[in-house]
Design a protein that fits this description.
8-stranded antiparallel β-sheet; 23% helix; alpha+beta; 605 residues
Length: 605
C-alpha cells in the first residue's frame, strides 16, 4: 500500500492527471462512460475548474493499492490541505512547464516539507510550445531551499508528463508513452505506511461528510490497529476527554470514485467510518481502551471576515426558501464544524453572524453554495482581522502577490499597487514579452482590486495571492473612488428614465427590473453618492413631438456583476443582497434620513 497526496497550483492539470491514472490502472471498465475531471465532483468545482474540497480515492496497480488524495490548489482552502497531509506518506508536486512554481504551490509544499514528506516532482504540460522545463526545475529547487527542505528532500526524482495525453517519462524530450513510469516511481519512492497493526485501533478524523442514510461519515487514516464492523469505539477530543461512545456501524474504503463497504480496516488504510453522531474533524476515534488522543495539525487562523445577515430588503422572501436567522445560523455552524478554517460568531441582535475565513474566494464559495441551497442573505464588505503584537501595536495580515503581466502594463500595475501600500520585492522578465512582479501587500489593500487590475491589463494579467505574515499596520488606504447612483423609490426601472442617467455613470440595472428605495442602480462618475429616480415614465398624450424626439431610446447593456465582483465592489455602508436568482447591491440603511443620521454620527465619532 502507498498513501500519496497530489499538490499543484490552480489549473496546472492535477485533476486531469488523476483521470488518466484511473484509466491506465484499469479502475474503470473499457466501455464505462466517465466525465472529464472526474474528481471535481460538485457543481461549483466543475464550473470554476478548481478543486475546492480535498477528496481521497484509490487505484490498484500491479498488486499495489495506491491511495491518492486530491488537494485544493488555492490557499483560501488551505484548511483542507493541512489536515489531509497527515494521512499520506509522500507527495507528488505537479508544476506547469511554462508557469513554474506559483505561490499557492508554495503554501501546500511548505506544509508537506515541514511534515518530512519526500516529494516527487512532475513537470506537467511538457508539450506546451512555451515550455521552459530547465528554468522551472531550477525554480522548484530554489523553492524547496527557501522552505528549509532537508538534503533528502532536495534529492527529488523528476518526471516529465502530459496529463491530458496520458504519458510520463524521465526523458524531457519524450512526447508519447504511458504513465507506467509514474506508477513505478510512486511504488519505489514513497514508503509503505510504517504503522503498528497489533496496537489498539486509533483513527484521526480529517474530513467530515453527511449521508442521508448513514448520518455523520468521518474520513481519515487508520493510525494503528484494526477496526471491524460493530466494534465498540469512542471519540476523544484534543485534551483526551471522551466526547461520545458508539459502534463502527459501517466501514468503507475508496475504490476509484466509489466508497465500498468492507468488514475490517487495518493501520495505513484511508477509510470512511459511520456510527457516531457528535465526533468531528481533529477528534481521535479509538478502541475504548485508548485514552491518549492523536495530536492534530494546528490550523492557520482566519484573516478575513464578513457579516452574514438576514435579508431585510423589501423583496425578501420572494425567491428563497430559507430566509430565517435560525436556518442561516444552523447552516453556518454546520459549515464551521466540517471546515476548520472557518469561524462563526453570533452577533448580539441574533440577526447577523460574523463569518471569518482565509480569503474572499473561500467565503464567496460558501455564499454561492448557500444561495444554491435556497438561502437569502445580506452580505457586508469583507474586513481584515487585526491583531496586537507583544508591544500592544496593531498588526494586520500581509499577502505575497505575484503578478504576470505584459510589459506595457507593468508601470500601471506598480503605480496602482503603490496606492494600496504594497511594497515591490521583485521584478523580472518571465519570457514571451511578460514581466513577473512580486509585492508584499496588506490584505486590506487587495480587497476589490482584482476587477480594476483586469481592466488595467485588458484582461491579460494573472494575479496570484498568498497569506504571508502579520505585519505593522499601514494606516488608511484609499478605497473606491466613485460614488453610486441610488434609487429614491420603489417600482420598475423605465428606459425613459435610464437613458438620461447613462450620462451620470455606469448602470447596473436594465429596463423593467424591480427596484426599491435605497437600492444601488449604478456607479456615479463623481465621488459622491447621488439619489435618482429611475422609474420616471413618459407622459402619454395624443400629441406628437416635432423633430423626431419620439425616437426609441437605445440603452447600453447594464453591467452585471458576479458574486465575487459585487462583494469586492461595495463600501462599508453598503451590502450585497444574495438570493437564489438575483444579486443586488444596496445601501445598508435604505431610508435616506437614516443614512444621513448614521453618517453624521460616524463623522462626530
Amino acid at each position: 500500500m502507498r498513501n500519496i497526496a497530489i499538490i499543484a497550483h490552480v489549473d496546472h492539470g492535477k485533476t486531469t492527471l488523476v483521470d488518466q491514472l484511473f484509466r491506465q490502472s484499469g479502475t474503470f471498465r473499457e466501455n464505462q462512460r466517465i466525465e472529464e475531471r472526474a474528481m471535481d465532483s460538485n457543481d461549483l468545482e466543475k464550473e470554476r475548474g478548481i478543486t475546492i474540497l480535498a477528496k481521497p480515492t484509490s487505484i490498484e496497480w500491479e498488486g499495489v493499492r495506491i491511495n491518492i488524495v486530491d488537494t485544493p490548489g488555492h490557499a483560501d482552502f488551505g484548511g483542507e490541505v493541512e489536515r489531509i497531509l497527515s494521512m499520506v506518506d509522500g507527495v507528488i508536486l505537479l508544476v506547469d512547464s511554462s508557469e513554474g512554481a506559483m505561490p499557492q504551490t508554495k503554501f501546500v509544499t511548505g506544509k508537506a516539507l515541514a511534515l518530512g514528506l519526500r516529494p516527487i516532482v512532475v513537470v506537467n504540460k511538457v508539450d506546451r510550445p512555451d515550455e521552459r522545463i530547465q528554468e522551472v526545475l531550477d525554480e522548484v529547487f530554489d523553492l524547496f531551499v527557501s522552505l528549509d527542505a532537508t538534503d533528502e528532500q532536495l534529492d527529488f526524482p523528476v518526471l516529465y508528463a502530459s496529463g491530458r495525453n496520458g504519458y510520463a517519462s524521465e526523458d524531457p524530450s519524450r512526447r508519447e508513452g504511458t504513465l507506467t513510469p509514474l506508477f513505478q516511481k510512486i511504488v519505489d519512492h514513497v514508503p509503505p505506511p510504517a504503522l503498528d497493526v497489533d496496537a489498539p485501533f486509533t483513527f484521526l478524523v480529517t474530513l467530515l461528510d453527511r449521508d442521508n442514510f448513514l448520518g455523520r461519515v468521518l474520513t481519515g487514516r487508520v493510525t494503528s490497529g484494526t477496526v471491524k464492523v460493530n466494534q465498540p469505539i469512542h471519540a476523544l477530543d484534543m485534551d483526551g476527554k471522551v466526547i461520545e461512545t458508539g459502534r463502527a456501524s459501517k466501514i468503507m474504503t475508496f475504490q476509484g470514485l466509489e466508497r465500498v463497504p468492507t468488514e475490517e480496516a487495518r493501520a495505513g488504510d484511508i477509510i470512511s467510518l459511520a456510527g457516531l453522531t457528535v465526533a468531528t474533524v481533529s477528534n481521535t476515534i479509538a478502541d475504548i481502551t485508548v485514552t491518549e488522543p492523536i495530536q492534530a495539525q494546528p490550523i492557520d487562523p482566519p484573516t478575513l471576515s464578513m457579516r452574514f445577515a438576514v435579508n431585510d430588503s423589501p423583496m425578501a422572501g420572494r425567491e428563497g426558501t430559507k430566509v430565517t436567522s435560525r436556518m442561516i445560523r444552523d447552516r453556518l455552524f454546520r459549515e464551521a464544524e466540517s471546515n476548520v478554517a472557518i469561524k462563526v460568531t453570533e452577533s448580539a441582535d441574533r440577526d447577523s453572524f460574523e463569518v471569518a475565513g482565509r480569503g474572499e474566494l473561500q467565503l464567496g464559495v460558501l455564499i454561492e453554495t448557500m444561495r444554491r441551497e435556497g438561502f437569502e442573505l445580506g452580505i457586508s464588505r469583507p474586513r481584515v482581522l487585526y491583531r496586537e503584537d507583544e508591544n500592544g501595536k496593531r498588526t494586520e495580515p500581509y499577502e505575497t502577490v505575484i503578478i504576470d503581466v505584459d510589459e506595457e502594463y507593468s508601470g500601471t500595475v506598480v503605480e496602482k499597487m503603490n496606492l494600496r501600500k504594497a511594497e515591490l520585492t521583485d521584478m523580472r522578465p518571465s519570457g514571451g514579452g511578460k514581466t513577473r512582479i512580486t509585492f508584499s501587500a496588506p490584505s486590506r489593500g487587495m480587497i476589490g482590486y482584482h476587477g480594476e487590475f483586469l481592466s488595467d491589463t485588458r484582461g491579460t494579467g494573472i494575479m496570484n495571492r498568498l497569506f504571508e505574515k502579520y505585519g505593522p499596520y499601514k494606516g488608511p488606504i484609499e478605497g473606491r473612488k466613485n460614488g453610486v447612483l441610488i434609487s429614491n423609490g420603489a417600482g420598475e426601472a423605465q428606459a425613459y428614465a435610464l437613458g438620461p442617467l447613462e450620462d451620470r455613470g455606469i448602470l447596473f440595472v436594465g429596463h423593467g427590473e424591480a427596484l426599491y428605495e435605497g437600492m444601488i442602480i449604478g456607479e456615479n462618475a463623481k465621488t459622491d453618492d447621488l439619489e435618482v429616480n429611475p422609474m420616471k415614465a413618459k407622459q402619454l398624450t395624443n400629441f406628437r413631438a416635432s423633430g423626431g424626439k419620439d425616437d426609441a431610446i437605445r440603452l447600453t447593456p447594464p453591467k452585471k456583476m458576479t458574486l465575487e465582483q459585487a462583494i469586492a465592489y461595495i463600501d462599508d455602508d453598503e451590502m450585497v443582497e444574495v438570493t437564489p436568482k438575483t444579486i443586488r447591491l444596496r445601501k445598508r440603511f435604505l431610508d435616506p434620513h437614516e443614512r444621513k443620521r448614521q453618517k453624521r454620527s460616524a463623522e462626530a465619532a
